Amino acid sequence: MPFCKQACHYCDFHFSTNLRKKQDMVSALQKELLLRKDELKNEEVQTIYFGGGTPSVLEIGEINEIVKTVAENYSVIENPEITLEANPDDLSLKKIKELSDSPINRLSIGVQSFFDQDLKLMNRAHNAKEAHLCLNESKKYFENISIDLIYGIPGMTHKRWQENITKALSYELPHISSYALTVEPKTALKAFIDKGIIPNVDDEMAEEQFNILCALLEKEGFINYEISNFGKEGYFSKNNTAYWKGKKYLGIGPSAHSYDGTKRGWNINNNSKYIRSIKERVLPIEVEVLSKTDRYNEYVMTGLRTIWGISLYKIQTEFGNSYFEYLMQQSDKYIKEEMLSVDRNKISVTKKGKFLCDGIASDLFMIKLN
Ligand code: SF4
């Protein structure tokens, strides 16, 4: 749902702050669902995920219509996980109640911080009071709730970060996602940092805050099943886990990506062009057939970020011996430095290597073979 009430300073996702085309967008999403219904053939839909942008700008009727279109045109399992990403300022008591009567059964709430100074620095549309209010109310109607928190925010001390985590834990939620603030090119945050208005992010501080997060959440029984995701047993995101495990997915809407096991597709990232094209019954999608090397690199990247690691059996059976040998050779120095661990079945990242996981993964990428 590529609309947001206002632009967060750090965000480089595709979205528009002009909500005028929201209704046209909902119709286009439904049309795209119809146009692509044969792509899944006999596959069953296991999860539905409303991502953004800000899907909580949708009216309840619009959400129901979209889910209905999926249900009527696709084969959906009984009780699929249906997640709505929501921002606190959209979650009024009325909206939460309505959502609990809708097919949505999981909320992923973009809290980011419980402190106004952080929220203002990031230009979030909500304040700390709204974050608390929406969590108190959501808890009454939803059991499966996740919140997002951001660490490494310039000026955020370790003490404030710990307080953030403590506040989050006080809600006894089953899932927390947490990301380091990253400075993406062409964002307001980058411009402010370049002009000296905001101090730059400090990687060392961010790493320390990530370690604080892991320690505190581990103590509370959370499993860090993906670098940025912590869930209680039974509450891992089914949708995202499928994605990390290389399962197929269908992405609907501007800028949405799809994957069918061999091909990756991405929709145009322009709302007007997307709506126009769908109206003309033309899918505004570009498709790339992934080479074996692409698939290996993607698997290494996503696998290493999860507790399931990189399966050596999968590498050997799906990619062959040359890939297996290359992987072992590239992993060697990290194993010696105790950043990676290896057993008979898998390579995974250790506590020491976790924060540097993406960098390590890129060192394991295959560049030449096809
Ligand atoms: S609400 Fe989410 S998608 Fe929208 S601008 Fe903020 S971070 Fe980006």
What does this structure look like?
With 370 residues, the chain is an alpha/beta fold. The chain has 14 helices and 13 strands. The strands form 3 sheets. Strands 1-2-3-4-5-7-6 form a 7-stranded mixed sheet. It has a 3-stranded antiparallel sheet with strand order 8-9-10, with no helix packed on it. A hairpin with a 3-residue loop joins β8 (257-259) and β9. The protein starts with 21 loop residues before the first helix and ends in a 6-residue tail after the last helix. The relative contact order is 0.10. The model has no long low-confidence stretch (mean pLDDT 96).
Defining traits:
binds iron/sulfur cluster, 7-stranded mixed beta sheet, 370 residues, alpha/beta
Secondary structure class reads alpha/beta
Indicate the mean pLDDT.
Answer: 96
SSE run = HEHEHEHHEHEHHEEHEEHEHEHHEEH
> Runs with pLDDT <50, length 5+?
none
Q: Whole-number radius of gyration?
A: 21 Å
Give the quaternary arrangement of the chains. single chain
Distance between the termini: 36 Å
Which hetero ligands occur in this complex? Answer: iron/sulfur cluster
